[in-house]
Amino acid sequence: MTTSSSRRTGFTLIELLVVIAIIAVLIGLLIPAVQQVREAASRIKCANNLKQQGLALHMHHDAYGALPSALDNRFQKHWHWSWMVQILPFLEQDNLYRAADEWASNTSMPVRWYLPRPNGTPGYAHWSPWGGWVFGLTEPQQNPWLATALPLYLCPSDPNTPLVTSTMPGGLKLTMAATNYLGSNGTNYKTQDGVFTSNRGVRLGEITDGTSNTLFAGERGRGPTPLFGFWFGGCGQSDYTMPEGDEQRGSGDVVVGARELNSRQNGMASLDACPAGPYHFQPPNLIRDDSGAIQPACDELHYWSFHKGGANFVFADGSVHFLPYGADAVLPALATRGGGEVVDLP
What we know:
By secondary structure, the protein is of the alpha+beta class. The chain has five helices and nine strands, in the order H-H-H-E-E-E-E-E-E-E-H-E-E-H. It has a five-stranded mixed β-sheet. Strands 1-2 form a two-stranded antiparallel ribbon. The longest helix has about 50 residues.
């Protein structure tokens, strides 16, 4: 007598659903852990970027006897070149610096800048990083290196594209590369009592508060369509109550103050509708404009980051610290180079 038995060749529907549910639970547990590891790595990379910038600033000081200026408003070959351009040779970016300098050295298009009055300053259209439109010309185009995105100036936690294209007067389009790091101009762009000022470089000997108690630079996040925060050319906010020729000191673009002010003279509706300040070190998306709406543009005037709970800062001694938003109370003391304050880091 022979017997036959049937052999199962697959899962029942209930078993399959149980397996799928278990896999879904495991994925749900795993994804946050992976994200935390990824963010931790990004935060470390971000801190290392600032560390490299701090070392480059010291090498610049050793080579030239001073830190770079935030930018130089005086009409010359490196007109409005930011401190981040000036330290490129000390960041193993010599080729980029030389290429940008070679482009700016072109003398084929003479122009005259209207300042200082009454006779102005003779020069060349290629001195403008943004090209000839500044002088009412259609040529030359922008300095090509204005659109170079440098990983060293970008925090990997930032999900936004590093290149932004803007339409300028006359319809000319400029493409500019963004940065997540801004130098410290001190309390605000008017006082310039930090390590970065317009038109001149600060010496380390002027940092009487001590290099371990003074900020070089820190993180400032950016939105998908930032108005400011482009590392090469550093005009920033305009304030026409300032001395003529020095109305733009890089505020919001390449430097920012611990208690930055909004000039409200920038010709950008979203920014000019933001409060006059002073601004504070705080998380983004908390500041309301004149209409009472949360305005992301307002966050371009204070330090913040995409990291949870605070931001990375590099100090004048070259050390890097992650400061929580609770450190806002001591940030003004850290931002000034000679205020005489005693600071305990939180």
